[in-house]
Amino acid sequence: MRIGIIGGGPAGMMCAIKAGENHEVVLFEKNEKLGKKLFITGKGRCNLTNYTDEKDFMKNLVRNPSFMFSSIYSFSPFTTYYYFEDLGLPLKVERGNRVFPASDKSSDVIKTYEKKLRQVGVEVRLNTEVTSIKKDGETFILNGREKFDKVVIASGGISYKLTGSTGDGYKFGKEFGHKIIEPKPGLIGINLSNNFDLAGLSLKNVELRVEKDKKIISKEFGEMLFTHRGISGPIVLTTSSKINRLNDFELYLDLKPALSKEKLDSRILRDFEDNQNKNIENVMRNLLPRDLIAYVLDSAKIPGDKKINQITKEEREELVKIIKNFKLIFASLDDIDRAIVTSGGIDVKDIDPKTMESKLVKGLYFIGEVMDLDGLTGGFNIQIANSTGYSCGINL
Ligand SMILES: Cc1cc2nc3c(=O)[nH]c(=O)nc-3n(C[C@H](O)[C@H](O)[C@H](O)COP(=O)(O)OP(=O)(O)OC[C@H]3O[C@@H](n4cnc5c(N)ncnc54)[C@H](O)[C@@H]3O)c2cc1C
């Protein structure tokens, strides 16, 4: 068979490697080199996968985890780890089971794919954008002239467009009758409309909570930071992926998640007893980052220069409430072009999860981020690309 694969990211490269073992494969990449997005992953170090089992992998998927069941068992994170090591790429495992090349260079990951592509004889066509896919009987015709028996779309999502992921796969999918789940930014900063001047302030051991109709939608504990536009950092990125299809929700920060309301109140009472004649803004320094104090006191409607011995019980209770429920006013998610992953894309309901073949068009396949699949940070998104690429490749 002659197979055309559109997109030289991890999904397209993995698929080309496996399909190339048995077929004539042409890998089309519109950029001057393969893996342009891969190159910038993990801050240039490429968090290739997560050293964990299939069940844990599933827990780190935000959309359609059950779709991944078959392909993740075919090419699991552990298999991926040893696959790359066997190809001559030494790896290491860091905090949170994150896997990186031992060299800390994403370029070494790309070189590993390239070497294998050469070994199996895949024809890599760089600087070649696929602009049209037509089907004539059983044959696909790319760019009006080249014929293929099968076509695989591995064109990625629609973020960091300079890397080449400009959403072409959605256009092709639509032309073949596929439903596109509206692409939204995932793993992205959140813009706020609070009037904060806190850019650069980072917080540890806090909890970011999302509520809709008084129900908790998401609760993330860990680190975050304030930016010029709002908030970012690990717990914010995770939260963004969970709320990107929601409207009308509320965001709260628990600044002392380790303390219950009662414990926090006793802690504040103790601080107050020891500092009866001081201004509250100074006493709060024992409890909160200095830059946040004015905003917290303002929300609790307590003047910063009020003496502790004049603070009423009601004011103290309000203070406790605000520290546990510091309101952040959601404005928007940051721009999709800055998203680490695109949430949305080709609806997986129309894709066979074992082979990645379209259920609507025989011989047409979709793999990687172009589909409505996205994971959290930790190597899960490249694993989605590799596992779906692998499953498609071996089934081809
Ligand atoms: C800054 C950043 C850091 C990230 N870090 C990590 C990380 O450490 N770990 C992790 O797991 N994930 C990470 N991700 C996410 C990860 O990079 C993607 O999920 C993954 O690259 C998706 O792989 P893919 O092969 O599906 O698509 P892509 O990697 O986007 O590749 C698609 C390719 O298709 C090509 N293409 C598109 N249209 C056409 C066309 N019409 N003709 C020819 N070629 C075309 C593009 O040029 C591109 O090279 C990061 C993403 C970003 C933006």
Textual characterization of the structure:
The chain is an alpha+beta fold. It has two domains: 2-186 and 341-395, 3-Layer(bba) Sandwich (FAD/NAD(P)-binding domain), CATH 3.50.50.60; 189-333, Helicase, Ruva Protein, domain 3 (Orthogonal Bundle). Helix content is 32%, strand content 24%. It contains 13 helices and 20 strands. The strands form five sheets. Strands 17-16-13-14-15-12-18 form a seven-stranded antiparallel beta sheet. A five-stranded parallel beta sheet has the order 6-2-1-10-20, with helices on one face. The protein has a three-stranded antiparallel beta sheet with strand order 3-5-4. Helix 1 (10-20) runs parallel beside helix 6 and helix 1 packs parallel to helix 13. The longest helix has 16 residues, at 380-395. The model has no long low-confidence stretch (mean pLDDT 97). The structure holds flavin-adenine dinucleotide (FAD). Flavin-adenine dinucleotide binds at residues 6-12, 28-31, 36-38, 40-42, 46-47, 129-130, 154-156, 159-160, 164-165, 168, 340-341, 368-369, 379-382, 385.
